[in-house]
Design brief:
Layout lengths: L6 H19 L8 H9 L2 E15 L6 E14 L2
Antiparallel strand pairs: 1-2
Helix pairs in contact: 1-2
Length: 81
Amino acid sequence: MVGRPEFGTLFARARDRVSALRGLYREGPLPIDFRAMGERAAAVCMTNCELRHVQGERRSGRTGQVHPLGGFIGVAGYEGN
């Protein structure tokens, strides 16, 4: 069983991905207070969760390696500032 996608965790993953991409392709890391943003995101509450976890895989055409893929399908609702 996979845990519920709490907003703080989802936000942290998206924030870190955007920051990494900006660091690679733009002017450097985001000039934000990561800790404060994480604390605010952690205060957002889940209001509903109708999700299921799915697994899949992809095969590299070049190397033939198989890579696992997974994620959620459905709807989740959140409430907060």
